[in-house]
């Protein structure tokens, strides 16, 4: 028997005792490659700029920070798909970046890449896992909570959630989830399989990436592990810079983000003296800095809103000029933008979009007043579009009917007026729910004003019925909130409380003035009181707050 045959025969009988002590001879199980979902590139050759190859584009994108690549080429036959996959894999391997094949498990096997991504109309997960083996990276597409629940019951390595926004790269895609729907799915995944990472996909780009991350983050559980992009990189003439820019946005907190409510001033009666001191400080700071308030508002209230802004110490500008939006967002260190949809139509949409995005980019607060949100189908759709697709709004200010409409309740409004649809406890729940969903502050005006950031909630019972009898009185509160936010962005609920207390106490004081006999004389006295309280605060005095009626929930 030859020496080689003898060795084979001995091996068949089992290892010798001394061999079992040698760690170098102990067989090891293959391991799954590590993967990072942070910046996930999905390809589509049809979107490439002229005279560009997919290979060069992918390599440049990896140099810019892409962490994982999915080859999605729906129109390629099997042989050219495999050939392309092998060329792409030779590039991704060089940089240690995993390559996944979309849908085609057979192509993934032929290419020998790290795994595949499959949808619900493709091969089922268990079959894909059996074919690809335990070390392959396999992702599942999820577009609703039912699919998310099913995906969580598998051993999939990650899920891709989408589409987040309407997308042209996948015409047969499901209805968009938007950040609020994404957040719902993330919450469900956290309760079912908390360790399952997820990536969002669907028209995500540099203008909305940070809003998607911020607004989708669940109260408890894992946030997104990454974002998947297609055209934002594939259609770019400079894919390396495009990828680098997206990665920078992903890793940086948005300029408009504020500390979590848990890290802000506690809202309870024990801290009331401290809270009222901060109210005085905020109003004094408005006088000191004279913040610019850019009003995009309806024609009926422009004059009154400008006068209110001046009375509290701000500097109003009433501009509906699209070409000025970026300059106004960047022109002053202390500024804010009020988007009031009182005069709303298809023509205003572009202005709203540009204003919100430019102020987000500059880190300036945006207050959204959804006037008449429940009055017509067009207004409901505009409100949905603003909140889901335009970016981030720091504060939503509205009456009960408007806020209930945003919450998804089928409220019918009489023009811009609102009727109460339930008790105060129910309203508190609605306001808190909207604030938590949007991760912002909601100010609901009425006989009792309800303010919440989703965690802290405060009721204000100051004010006077005359406020409901002066056109523009409700809209102009948005101007004061803007002025307060412009000088105090760190605790937005505190800024809103300062504005509401100033507004309502000024109304109470105005009614007591000699000559204040009705809505006409009241409105003039009200402006005087706004100014006077500001002057009192400028001296550091807070006696005007002695009669405040607040409840902390």
Automatic annotation (TrEMBL):
Pathway(s) of this molecule: Cofactor biosynthesis; thiamine diphosphate biosynthesis; thiamine phosphate from 4-amino-2-methyl-5-diphosphomethylpyrimidine and 4-methyl-5-(2-phosphoethyl)-thiazole: step 1/1; Cofactor biosynthesis; thiamine diphosphate biosynthesis; 4-methyl-5-(2-phosphoethyl)-thiazole from 5-(2-hydroxyethyl)-4-methylthiazole: step 1/1
Q: Which intervals carry biased composition (Low complexity)?
A: 19-28
Thiamine phosphate synthase/TenI domain segment(s) = 39-233
Classification of source organism: Eukaryota, Fungi, Dikarya, Ascomycota, Pezizomycotina
Name the source's superkingdom.
Answer: Eukaryota
Region (Disordered) location: 1-28
Q: What does this protein do?
A: Condenses 4-methyl-5-(beta-hydroxyethyl)thiazole monophosphate (THZ-P) and 2-methyl-4-amino-5-hydroxymethyl pyrimidine pyrophosphate (HMP-PP) to form thiamine monophosphate (TMP).
Which reactions fall under this protein's catalytic activity? Answer: 4-methyl-5-(2-phosphooxyethyl)-thiazole + 4-amino-2-methyl-5-(diphosphooxymethyl)pyrimidine + H(+) = thiamine phosphate + diphosphate; 2-[(2R,5Z)-2-carboxy-4-methylthiazol-5(2H)-ylidene]ethyl phosphate + 4-amino-2-methyl-5-(diphosphooxymethyl)pyrimidine + 2 H(+) = thiamine phosphate + CO2 + diphosphate; 5-(2-hydroxyethyl)-4-methylthiazole + ATP = 4-methyl-5-(2-phosphooxyethyl)-thiazole + ADP + H(+); 2-(2-carboxy-4-methylthiazol-5-yl)ethyl phosphate + 4-amino-2-methyl-5-(diphosphooxymethyl)pyrimidine + 2 H(+) = thiamine phosphate + CO2 + diphosphate
One GO term in the molecular function aspect is: magnesium ion binding
Q: Which organism is it from?
A: Orbilia oligospora
Belongs to which family? In the C-terminal section; belongs to the Thz kinase family.
**Name of the protein in its database record:** Thiamine phosphate synthase/TenI domain-containing protein
User: InterPro entries this protein is in?
Assistant: Aldolase_TIM, Hyethyz_kinase, Ribokinase-like, ThiamineP_synth_sf, ThiamineP_synth_TenI, TMP_synthase
Which GO CC terms are listed, alphabetically?
A: cytoplasm
Coiled-coil segments: none
Q: Which NCBIfam families match?
A: PRK09355.1, thiE, thiM
Single biological process term from Gene Ontology: thiamine biosynthetic process
Gene3D superfamilies linked to this entry:
3.40.1190.20, Aldolase class I
Please tell me whether the keyword Kinase is annotated for this protein.
yes
């Amino acid at each position: 028997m030859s020496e080689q045959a003898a060795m084979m025969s001995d091996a068949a009988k089992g290892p010798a005792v001394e061999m079992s002590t040698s760690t170098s001879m102990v067989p090891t199980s293959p391991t799954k490659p590590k993967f990072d979902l942070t910046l996930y590139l999905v390809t589509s050759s049809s979107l490439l700029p002229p005279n560009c190859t997919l290979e060069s584009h992918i390599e440049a994108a990896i140099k810019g920070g892409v962490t994982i690549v999915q080859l999605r080429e729906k129109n390629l036959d099997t042989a050219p798909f495999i050939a392309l996959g092998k060329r792409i894999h030779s590039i991704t391997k060089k940089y240690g970046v995993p390559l996944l094949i979309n849908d085609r498990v057979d192509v993934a096997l032929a290419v020998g890449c790290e795994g595949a991504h499959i949808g619900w109309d493709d091969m089922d997960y268990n079959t894909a896992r059996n074919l690809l083996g335990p070390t392959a990276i396999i992702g599942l597409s999820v577009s609703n909570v039912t699919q998310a629940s099913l995906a969580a019951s598998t051993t999939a390595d990650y899920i891709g959630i989408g589409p987040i926004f309407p997308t042209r790269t996948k015409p047969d895609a499901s209805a968009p989830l938007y950040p609020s729907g994404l957040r719902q799915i993330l919450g469900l995944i956290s309760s079912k399989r908390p360790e399952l990472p997820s990536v969002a996909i669907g028209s995500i780009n540099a203008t909305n990436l940070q809003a998607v991350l911020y607004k989708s983050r669940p109260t408890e559980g894992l946030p997104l592990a990454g974002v998947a992009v297609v055209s934002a990189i594939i259609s770019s003439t400079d894919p390396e810079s495009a990828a680098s820019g997206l990665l920078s946005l992903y890793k940086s907190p948005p300029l408009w983000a504020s500390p979590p409510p848990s890290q802000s001033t506690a809202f309870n009666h024990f801290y009331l003296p401290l809270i009222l001191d901060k109210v005085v400080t905020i109003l004094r700071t408005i006088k000191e800095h004279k913040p610019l308030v850019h009003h995009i508002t309806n024609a009926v209230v422009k004059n009154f809103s400008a006068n209110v802004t001046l009375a509290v110490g701000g500097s109003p500008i009433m501009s509906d000029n699209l070409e000025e939006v970026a300059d106004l967002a960047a022109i002053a260190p202390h500024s804010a933008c009020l988007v009031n949809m009182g005069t709303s139509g298809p023509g205003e949409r572009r202005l709203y979009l540009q204003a919100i995005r430019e102020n987000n980019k500059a880190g300036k607060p945006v207050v959204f007043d959804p006037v008449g949100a429940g009055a017509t189908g067009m207004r409901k759709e505009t409100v949905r579009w603003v909140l889901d697709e335009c970016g981030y709004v720091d504060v939503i200010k509205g009456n009960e009917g408007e806020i209930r409409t945003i919450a998804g309740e089928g409220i019918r409004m009489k023009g811009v007026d609102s009727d109460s649809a339930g008790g105060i406890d129910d309203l508190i729940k609605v306001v808190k729910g909207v604030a938590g969903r949007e991760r912002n502050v909601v100010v609901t005006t009425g006989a009792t004003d309800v303010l919440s950031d989703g965690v802290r909630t405060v009721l204000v019972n100051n004010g006077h019925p005359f406020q409901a009898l002066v056109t523009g009185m409700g809209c102009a509160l948005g101007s004061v909130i803007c002025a307060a936010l412009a000088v105090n962005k760190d605790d937005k609920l505190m800024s809103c409380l300062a504005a509401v207390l100033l507004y309502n106490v000024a109304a109470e004081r105005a009614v007591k003035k000699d000559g204040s006999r009705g809505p006409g004389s009241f409105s003039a006295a009200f402006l005087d009181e706004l100014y006077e309280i500001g002057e009192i605060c400028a001296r550091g005095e807070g006696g005007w707050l002695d009669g405040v009626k607040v409840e902390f929930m």
